[in-house]
Design a protein that fits this description.
Blueprint (H helix, E strand, L loop, with lengths): L25 H4 L8 E3 L7 H4 L6 E4 L2 E2 L3 H14 L4 E3 L3 E5 L7 H7 L2 H11 L3 E3 L8 E4 L7 E6 L5 E6 L11 E4 L3 H9 L9 E2 L8 E5 L6 E5 L7 E9 L19 H26 L6 H11 L1 H12 L10
Antiparallel strand pairs: 1-2, 3-12, 4-5, 5-7, 6-14, 7-14, 8-13, 9-12, 9-14, 10-11, 10-13
Helix pairs in contact: 7-8, 7-9
Length: 329
């Protein structure tokens, strides 16, 4: 029920499984609790026409528990074991690990967990599945070398939906807080054009009780960042992405930002599969619902819309790498 594209049985060259991992056990490693509150996109200033094509009207949740104490401990151990593969993510983040689910079976099974996907569907009020591109599963951000630098700049995500989980204990770290702007992307862009960032009175800093807690995010619509640390410390978060199973909704992805960051053997194939899955659903709906009509242009527009994700993916692949989008100049 909560599967878009199944996790591949084979991996690109250069990926090996971490040895001696404990198996993921949802009964032991999950402690799912619903969030106390959910805020909608309308409360951020988005209009009906902007919200309607998106995966969900939800913007962000309050922090909620995902992992048990045992699960949070293994999550931290796994992140530390994956850290040797950290790399720079273009012009935005200094230390990230991408493709961790191709190296850690425990992380993979957490990120594709049907129990977590069901919980996320309940939060978003719409059926979702783990992202159809596995490079978006289990993305990890690590602290920069210079604590005065933001862990991650103000931005909106390259994926539609995700959760941001604290891996290290946020109550033991000075600074490095997850923050989000209670405005629209257009407002953030206007501020950036003036050399400004979101004003503090419109920034929310959620209080996470500890590691293994997360916020659900409409990542493509909510502008957010990881603030600078007040002092040098280990600071790790994990981001897991989801897609709406309703493929009539806009894709809300920005895969082109990842060219030059993720290895080519992986990212191009994954993007092709994702676009094909999107088109498969839209073409199937077209076959079932397209009526006979006298307006050829209306038929053409429906067919173009059905394959627009494939067309965009091809154009992006041919255009190649570019700097990642963000709101700091």
């Amino acid at each position: 029920m909560n599967v878009a594209v199944r996790f591949p049985e084979h991996r690109s060259a250069g990926y090996e499984w971490l040895p001696d991992e404990a198996p993921f056990d949802p009964g032991k490693h999950l402690a799912l609790e619903p969030p106390a509150s959910v805020t909608g996109l309308a409360e951020f200033g988005y209009g009906k026409a902007e919200i309607e094509p998106t995966a969900t009207p939800v913007a962000v949740s309050s922090p909620f528990r995902v992992l048990s104490e045992a699960g949070a401990e293994i999550m931290l151990q796994t992140a530390r074991r994956l850290r040797p593969w950290a790399t720079r993510a273009g012009n935005r983040i200094e230390n990230v690990v991408r493709g961790g689910c191709y190296r850690s079976r425990w992380l993979r099974d957490l990120c594709i967990s049907p129990e977590v996907a069901e919980a996320m569907s309940a939060i978003y009020g719409a059926p979702v599945a783990p992202h159809s591109m596995p490079v978006h599963l289990g993305h990890m951000n690590f602290e920069p070398a210079d604590p005065a630098e933001a862990v991650d700049k103000w931005h909106h995500d390259t994926v539609p939906l995700d959760y941001v989980m604290m891996v290290t204990d946020p109550t033991r770290i000075a600074g490095g807080r997850f923050e989000y702007f209670t405005g629209t992307k257009a407002e953030a862009a206007a501020l950036a054009a003036e050399g400004r960032t979101p004003p503090r009175d419109r920034v929310v800093v959620p209080e996470f009780p500890g590691p293994g807690y997360a916020v659900a995010l409409h990542g493509n619509m909510v502008v957010h960042r990881a603030a600078p640390l007040a002092e040098r410390a280990e600071r790790i978060t994990m981001v897991n992405a989801y897609v709406a199973l309703d493929r009539s909704r806009d894709d809300q992805s920005r895969a082109r930002d990842l060219f030059g960051i993720d290895d080519e053997e992986t990212i191009y194939t994954e993007l092709a599969r994702h676009a094909a899955w999107r088109a498969q659903g839209r073409l199937g709906a077209l076959i079932e619902t397209l009526p006979f009509q006298r307006d050829p242009e209306a038929v053409i527009e429906r067919l173009e819309a059905a394959v627009e994700d494939v067309t965009r993916a091809i154009d992006d692949m041919r255009a190649g790498p570019r700097d990642a989008e963000h709101y700091e100049r």
